[in-house]
Amino acid sequence: MRKAVLIGSMVTTLLSGGAMAGPWEDGMVAYNRGDYLPAMRLIRPLAEQGNPKAQNQIGVMYRKGEGVLSSPSRAFMWFSLAARRGDARAKAGLRDVSKAMTPVEISQGQQMAQACETSNYRSCEY
Predict the structure, then answer these.
(1) Which of 7, 82, 99, 106 is the most buried (most CB within 10 A)?
(2) pTM, 2 dp
Protein backbone atom coordinates (compact mmCIF):
# COMPACT_ATOMS: atom_id res chain seq x y z
CA MET A 1 0.00 0.00 0.00
CA ARG A 2 2.77 2.46 0.94
CA LYS A 3 4.61 1.66 -2.27
CA ALA A 4 1.52 2.44 -4.36
CA VAL A 5 0.98 5.77 -2.55
CA LEU A 6 4.63 6.73 -3.04
CA ILE A 7 4.58 5.86 -6.74
CA GLY A 8 1.28 7.71 -7.20
CA SER A 9 2.72 10.75 -5.47
CA MET A 10 5.82 10.70 -7.68
CA VAL A 11 3.75 10.40 -10.86
CA THR A 12 1.50 13.29 -9.77
CA THR A 13 4.54 15.46 -9.01
CA LEU A 14 6.12 14.74 -12.38
CA LEU A 15 2.90 15.28 -14.34
CA SER A 16 2.06 18.50 -12.53
CA GLY A 17 5.47 20.01 -13.25
CA GLY A 18 6.45 19.89 -9.60
CA ALA A 19 10.06 19.16 -10.49
CA MET A 20 10.95 22.61 -11.77
CA ALA A 21 14.37 23.96 -12.59
CA GLY A 22 15.69 27.25 -11.30
CA PRO A 23 17.24 30.20 -13.14
CA TRP A 24 20.71 28.62 -13.24
CA GLU A 25 19.46 25.38 -14.76
CA ASP A 26 17.14 27.20 -17.18
CA GLY A 27 19.96 29.54 -18.16
CA MET A 28 22.33 26.68 -18.85
CA VAL A 29 19.70 24.84 -20.88
CA ALA A 30 19.28 27.98 -23.00
CA TYR A 31 23.06 28.41 -23.25
CA ASN A 32 23.64 24.80 -24.31
CA ARG A 33 20.88 25.20 -26.90
CA GLY A 34 22.68 28.25 -28.30
CA ASP A 35 20.03 30.69 -27.08
CA TYR A 36 22.54 33.11 -25.63
CA LEU A 37 20.32 36.15 -25.02
CA PRO A 38 17.82 34.27 -22.83
CA ALA A 39 20.76 32.55 -21.13
CA MET A 40 22.30 35.93 -20.31
CA ARG A 41 18.97 37.25 -18.97
CA LEU A 42 18.69 34.27 -16.64
CA ILE A 43 22.31 33.96 -15.54
CA ARG A 44 23.32 37.61 -15.17
CA PRO A 45 21.10 38.33 -12.12
CA LEU A 46 22.73 35.35 -10.40
CA ALA A 47 26.17 36.73 -11.25
CA GLU A 48 25.16 40.10 -9.84
CA GLN A 49 24.12 38.35 -6.62
CA GLY A 50 27.67 37.02 -6.29
CA ASN A 51 27.19 33.48 -7.64
CA PRO A 52 30.68 32.44 -8.84
CA LYS A 53 29.41 29.81 -11.31
CA ALA A 54 27.21 32.44 -12.94
CA GLN A 55 30.04 34.98 -12.92
CA ASN A 56 32.29 32.46 -14.65
CA GLN A 57 29.63 31.70 -17.26
CA ILE A 58 29.18 35.41 -18.02
CA GLY A 59 32.98 35.61 -18.43
CA VAL A 60 32.85 32.72 -20.90
CA MET A 61 30.11 34.45 -22.87
CA TYR A 62 32.07 37.72 -23.07
CA ARG A 63 35.24 35.87 -24.04
CA LYS A 64 33.47 34.02 -26.85
CA GLY A 65 31.05 36.79 -27.87
CA GLU A 66 27.99 34.63 -27.17
CA GLY A 67 24.91 36.87 -26.95
CA VAL A 68 27.16 39.88 -26.31
CA LEU A 69 29.97 41.60 -28.14
CA SER A 70 33.24 39.88 -27.42
CA SER A 71 35.10 41.84 -24.76
CA PRO A 72 38.31 40.58 -23.20
CA SER A 73 38.11 43.28 -20.49
CA ARG A 74 34.57 42.30 -19.48
CA ALA A 75 35.48 38.61 -19.60
CA PHE A 76 38.49 39.39 -17.40
CA MET A 77 36.25 41.30 -14.98
CA TRP A 78 33.72 38.47 -14.57
CA PHE A 79 36.42 35.79 -14.36
CA SER A 80 38.20 37.89 -11.70
CA LEU A 81 35.06 38.20 -9.61
CA ALA A 82 34.40 34.46 -9.78
CA ALA A 83 38.04 33.55 -9.17
CA ARG A 84 38.06 35.69 -6.01
CA ARG A 85 35.18 33.53 -4.80
CA GLY A 86 37.22 30.39 -5.41
CA ASP A 87 35.81 29.18 -8.75
CA ALA A 88 38.53 26.99 -10.32
CA ARG A 89 37.14 27.29 -13.85
CA ALA A 90 37.18 31.07 -13.54
CA LYS A 91 40.83 30.97 -12.48
CA ALA A 92 41.62 29.00 -15.64
CA GLY A 93 39.47 31.35 -17.74
CA LEU A 94 41.26 34.33 -16.25
CA ARG A 95 44.65 32.87 -17.20
CA ASP A 96 43.47 32.06 -20.73
CA VAL A 97 41.85 35.40 -21.48
CA SER A 98 44.71 37.43 -20.01
CA LYS A 99 47.23 35.76 -22.36
CA ALA A 100 45.66 37.55 -25.33
CA MET A 101 45.14 40.90 -23.58
CA THR A 102 47.26 44.03 -23.60
CA PRO A 103 48.35 45.56 -20.29
CA VAL A 104 45.82 48.36 -20.88
CA GLU A 105 42.98 45.84 -21.32
CA ILE A 106 44.03 43.98 -18.17
CA SER A 107 44.13 47.24 -16.22
CA GLN A 108 40.68 48.12 -17.52
CA GLY A 109 39.36 44.69 -16.51
CA GLN A 110 40.82 45.07 -13.03
CA GLN A 111 39.27 48.53 -12.64
CA MET A 112 35.90 47.21 -13.82
CA ALA A 113 36.03 44.33 -11.33
CA GLN A 114 36.88 46.73 -8.50
CA ALA A 115 34.04 49.11 -9.46
CA CYS A 116 31.63 46.19 -9.73
CA GLU A 117 32.49 44.83 -6.29
CA THR A 118 32.58 48.27 -4.66
CA SER A 119 29.10 49.07 -5.98
CA ASN A 120 27.73 45.71 -4.81
CA TYR A 121 27.28 44.66 -8.47
CA ARG A 122 25.30 47.77 -9.51
CA SER A 123 28.12 49.18 -11.69
CA CYS A 124 29.43 46.15 -13.51
CA GLU A 125 29.36 47.62 -17.00
CA TYR A 126 30.28 50.93 -18.51
Answers:
(1) 82
(2) 0.81
